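Exam revision sheet. Question 4 asks you to relate a sequence to its structure. Input first:
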Amino acid sequence: MIAIVLLTYDRMDYAKKTIASVAKNLKLPPGEDVWFHIADDGSEQEYRDALWEIAKKHWGENVSMTNSERRGYGASYNAATQLVHGVADLILPLEDDWELIRKLDLTPIAAALRSDVFGCVRMGYIGTTQLLRASFVKAQDLWWLGLDPDSAEPHVFAGHPRLESVEWERYVGPWPEGIGAGATEFEVAHRREARKGVAWPVDLIRPSGDAFVHIGAVQA
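Answer key, structure tokens:
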């Protein structure tokens, strides 16, 4: 099973677009089920209730929710993974301001992860401030860029939309709590564990990003 984890806090307009886009455009492997998890960081109950009803319309009983009660991005992620690791083997963390603008078939990405070719496949965009090295890898009859963990670029891993195995997430470990979202991502990106086994699906998504696009103008 694949779990989509929506990381959110009080941004209904963005969150509704994000949910609708994955419900419409995300193509799953044959016979695959989705578990949709709302990882909320302490929004009003009305907000959580509204998202719950939207999610139920798309995924029925395969919906769950956690509330990290304003303890921040890392705490919200940690609470979500404690639950979804028990119901799925692949996790798609998705912040509430990313929209999937076209059809995207997860079948080859899921197969590459389940074959232990990679642990994490990024699906947002590649951004660099320093040298990012990669090697071409052939898997599932497609070309991938295996990102070099020793690259100077801090963001071999990034907090963009991505598909990850539960084993890889456990290897990376719990995220830091009590710091801002950007600082949280930066700390995780510097972990040696988070820099290993990360790939870009170059035959499926342009490195500039043409599947998931960032729509948020206000920081969470």
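Marking note for examiners. The mean pLDDT is 97.
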